[in-house]
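REQUEST FORM: STRUCTURE PREDICTION
Request ID: SP-0412
Submitted by: Lab K.M.
Chain count: 1
Length (residues): 479
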Amino acid sequence: MENKYYFFRSKLYEALPIGQSFDIFERKLVIAGHDAHLYYVEGLVNGTRMQLLLSYLLDEASKKPAKMESAEVFINEKFPFSSTTLTDDPNVAAEMLLKGLVPIVIDGLDKIIVADVRNYPSRSVEEPSKEKSLRGAKDGFTETFMTNVALVRRRIRSGNLVFESHIIGSDSATDIALVYMKDSADMKLVEKLGKKLDSIDARTMTVAEQSVVEALMRDETKKKRGLARFAILNPFPKVRYTQRPDVVAAHVTEGRLAILVDNSPTALLLPASVFDFMQEVDDYYFPIVTGNYFRVLRIINLIAVVFASPLFFLMAEGHIKVYEAIRFFIPDMDFAISIFWQFVLIELAIDALKFASLNTPDSLGMSLSVIGALILGEFSIESGWFIPQTILVMAVVTLGSFAFPSIEMGYAVKVVRLIILIGAAIFGLWGAIGASIFCLIVMASTKTLVGTSYLYPLIPYNKDELKKVIFRTAQKRKN
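STATUS: Completed
RESULT:
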């Protein structure tokens, strides 16, 4: 046993920067007459539980020397911590140490004792700023993995709920949970996605959930040939993101899958068709009539956001007939920049202002917004760069884009709008129609991250499911 004690210590020294990294500590103890060493990472342990652990070990140190029978007997009969494991692999113990656990090596024991006294730094549970609801729950995911798991488990108290564990990244060893209901999920899909997660070859999950998505997309792209390899340039999001545990719970109980990633407050929802991006949590927290009003309004808003600027361009350039009732809105003056380039420049300017607002202090945000609206808008019109109509159209489009629950789908819609606008600028009405058909073909040929149709339940057609995604229906009772 003595050789194993020194073997464990030497291997831990090889695997860990003990004495080099100031946050990794080694403490020498004597337990019942036997030399022992305890290892922990400062900042990842709970102070109270760590104090209890040290108090117990120091109390054992004051006792008379005793024979160490085995590690199992020691933790079963004497160790006061229930969340304790044993391992005879020093590399596993080192990995556990870096996750916040405390390995204890005792001379005379054949295994390393690993006590769980971890406590990760985390912020409080609060409502996500992008997914606020008028009614309903006000909690949201945090960057702490087990907190997110608990928020979902709190809502689904069923033995069928499974959190399948995966670890990705040779350096980061990031914990990932594949979440599903084993009584309703497609187990072939679960197995397929589980294998994909295990096959991800990466050193570290640099940007958490997005690293997972990009790794899975690269895996799919490598299997394709010819033009299919350019699918990575497809603007349509193949995964739905959410920071709300109630949305994940609803998604999982419908038989679909979710992925939780450590260090990220964002969950991935799979599979996600284009219709899923049109749904919002308030659709279900209000009565059926109100929920359907929200959803229909969102669909109308989508159509307006996509076609507003191309339609105005076609009318202003005389490619389509303008009715007398709206002729007042069509410009009859000369302007320095063509309407097409006005729209393009305003699109770029809006995105630039969005990025600038992200780095603007909260105390100055409102002031700069007023300055941008009054000074920049007024000057651009007076200087002849832009006309009031194009600014008004883009203001409506920009405000309408905020109605999308998904930021990714909002930018996909922007790309579609620009493609249609370019088609209209080059070939007129038929160019706009052709560009629209092209975007529909791209959308129809798009596959979700797990290989299902992006237009399901429209393609393949499923009448009942299509009705549910377009309109909110009453929930059926379980027989």
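NOTES: The mean pLDDT is 83.
Reviewed by: T.R.
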